[in-house]
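>> received
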Amino acid sequence: MLTSVNPRETVRVALPATMKKNILVIEDNADIAHLVMVNLHSKQMHVDHAAEGTVGLDMALTGQYHLVILDLMLPGMDGLDICRTLRNEKVYTPILMLTARTTELDRVLGLEVGADDYLTKPFSVPELVARVNAILRRSDQYQPSQATRASSPLRFGELSVDPDKRRVQLGDNNIELTAKEFDLLWHFASNPGRVFSRSQLLDCVWGYGHAGYEHTVNSHINRLRAKIETDPAKPRYIITVWGVGYKFSENEIGQGVA
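>> returned
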């Protein structure tokens, strides 16, 4: 049974232990929270709920979740601050933001602080479920299997990328990346020499195929270059292919596994 909530309570939807996907919903609107929880429950997902921002943050920091569905406007602590805090604490759980705000600036802010997808209210249940499933599929693709875990880190010249520890090193220096910067770099490093358009990068890394978000790719690539390139104006690793997009330099292929 699903129970109504107040801003200082959390509600757990009890499911059998065999269910694999654990979802946290941080939403103060009881009707919307109930709708989301019922529909994800029907898809065989385990769902926890918090109706207040600080409670939700504590659950996201201490729980084991495959996805956080996060409202932007919350009592106690808003969704942007929760998202920012999770990423600063190196919690890389995927985040789907829900909000009544519809301006492009609000959507971009959510993506820039580390959200993986963005859904505006009112939304349809089939679209919500489709976005949840898409995020979970992408997340699974970034989880190395036990058999390949030992060989998964890659080295390209002085650059080392470890997907298991989500660690990047340039020579002896650790490079601090946001969750999305790491995902973008790993996608490039896993496909050296392959050229990706901005739209393809949005689809593969963000899950966004909508026109108008290409500048999000540009800003992330600029920040990546500032962190991993000796001279960002003359990049060694992430190369611009004019009129097409970007690629990871083929000149760095063949340096072996880290």
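>> Helices lie at 30-42, 53-62, 79-88, 104-112, 125-141, 179-189, 198-206, 214-228.
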